[in-house]
Each structure stands twice: as C-alpha cells, then as structure tokens.
UniProtKB/TrEMBL annotation:
It is an enzyme of class 3 (hydrolase). GO terms for biological process: deadenylation-dependent decapping of nuclear-transcribed mRNA. Keywords: Hydrolase, Nucleus. It catalyses: a 5'-end (N(7)-methyl 5'-triphosphoguanosine)-ribonucleoside in mRNA + H2O = N(7)-methyl-GMP + a 5'-end diphospho-ribonucleoside in mRNA + 2 H(+). Gene3D superfamilies: HIT-like, Scavenger mRNA decapping enzyme, N-terminal domain. This is m7GpppX diphosphatase. The active site is at H189. GO terms for molecular function: 5'-(N(7)-methyl 5'-triphosphoguanosine)-[mRNA] diphosphatase activity; RNA 7-methylguanosine cap binding. It comes from the Eukaryota. GO terms for cellular component: nucleus; P-body. It comes from Pneumocystis carinii (strain B80) (Rat pneumocystis pneumonia agent). Its main location: nucleus. InterPro entries: DcpS/DCS2 (IPR008594), HIT-like_sf (IPR036265), Scavenger_mRNA_decap_enz_N (IPR011145).
C-alpha cells in the first residue's frame, strides 16, 4: 500500500502483523534525494498501548519470588494466548515469513530470528533483530532454568553466524544480545542489536539483562534452582498495565 502526495512525499506500508503496521516514508529534498523516516502504527490501539507510550512517573520495584508467585504470575498468564496473537502468527508462518533470516525447528531449542518491527531494515547502525523461541512454556526471564542454556547458546551462535554474513559491514563483536524484564510481551525472546544503537529505556539498568550474563548465572546455579527464585529490581511506569493491575494494589495493602 503506497500513499503519495503531489509534492513527492510518500508513505508506504511495508509490514503488517495483526494490529501492528510499519510504514516507511520520505519527502524530496532540493537535490532530489528522499530521506527515509519510519512510522509504526498500532490500530486499533488498546488502553494498554496508549498508557505504555504515555509520559509517566516511574518507581522502583523489588519483585521477590513470593510477590511474583502470588501476584505477578497470575497477571502474566492473562497476557498470553490471544493477547500475543501476532507472535504466534510469526511462529506459525502466517505473518512476516519473508523477513525471517534464520529458523531452527527443534521442538525444545527451536527459534526464529527476524527484524524487529521498530527497525527500518536499511540502516545498519540501528540494526535490530529479535529471536523468538518456538516453545510456549517460557513466558519471560523468570522461567529460565539450567536446562535452557543450550537454547540460549544456540540463539547467540545463530545470530553471530547469520547477521554478519547478511551485513558485511558489521562484525560479530558489534552485536549485543539482551533480554528485557519485564518484557513488552510474555513469550520468551532475545533482542539482538548493533552495539552502537541506543534504544532508549530498552537498555536501561533494571530493564535489560545481557544474554551472556544470564547464561553465566544459569551455568553457576545448581540444577534445581531457576531465576524464578531470585529477586528482580526494576523501574515501572505508574500508567503501565503491570502497575495498575498488580503493584498499585500491592502497595495499597502494605
């Protein structure tokens, strides 16, 4: 779908998955060049989406294993299924199939690597991929156990092999791997970006955890231990769904 104006300005839909739309556009300069800009459209947007992207006050949260089990996990369970239909569309090869650069179909350690919708797929300095696991029993960082180390190592190695071959101007040591907690959606995935790319609060302390550090922590843990048993400290916006439906209610009772 391409929208054009008489003055040469244009906006082109290049990707659509469920309610998420990615447009690339441009306006002609005096020398005839068209600088690109990117527009991400969420339609129809829910109240959760609107609050997520609104300016808001944040507070520090110390989420203990007990708080997670009693209050957070029930909330996480409600945010799966139809709430993340667009993720299942990718895994089931319904949407964005042409963008997949790597797939492992192994039942336990399988995953797909494809461009993040935020990236224009052109600018190497803002390169941004995401690896989404096929298995549906890992909601977030919390669920990781020692048995998941082969999966995490496979994701890293696949990205190191494939991405520099696709973009020769980037080397393996210019890729960074990180995991968000809390994530923007509760189906386990790993972010892969250019080391120079600053993704804003997506790389903040208390939000982004380096993949290598997580692997190392899992390697040093006993077999019966998992990340569900540790306390996570993070910063949460007071308009976020997680704050309104979970932590604001906890604070009211303490």
């Amino acid at each position: 779908m391409l929208f054009t104006e008489e003055n040469g300005a244009y906006l082109e839909l290049i990707e659509k998955n469920d309610i998420y739309h990615l447009f690339l556009g441009g306006t002609p300069f005096y020398d005839g060049k068209k600088p690109f800009f990117k527009v991400t459209l969420i339609h129809p947007a829910s109240d959760i989406h609107i609050r997520k992207y609104s300016r808001q006050t944040k507070c520090r949260i110390e989420e203990t294993p007990e708080i997670y089990e009693l209050y957070v996990k029930p909330y996480v369970d409600t945010m799966r299924g139809s709430r993340i239909k667009w993720v299942y569309n990718i895994l089931d090869h319904i949407s964005e199939t042409e963008n997949v650069i790597y797939e492992c179909t192994d039942e336990k350690n399988g995953f797909i690597i494809l461009p993040d919708l935020k990236w224009d797929q052109k600018t190497v300095s803002t390169l941004y991929y995401v690896a989404i696991v096929h298995r549906r029993d890992i909601s977030s960082l919390r669920d990781l156990k020692k048995e998941h180390i082969p999966l995490l190592l496979a994701i890293k190695q696949a990205a190191l092999d494939v991405i520099p071959k696709k973009f020769q101007e980037i080397s393996q040591d210019q890729l960074k791997f990180f995991i968000h907690y809390h994530p923007s959606y509760y189906h386990f995935h790993v972010h892969i970006s250019h080391i120079d790319f600053d993704s804003g609060d997506g790389m903040d302390i208390g939000r982004a955890y380096l993949l290598e550090d997580i692997i190392n922590q899992l390697q040093t843990m006993s077999d019966h231990f998992s990340l569900i048993q540790r306390t996570f400290t993070f910063f949460l916006g007071k308009k976020s769904d997680l704050w309104l439906n979970v932590f604001s209610k906890i604070m009211d009772t303490t």
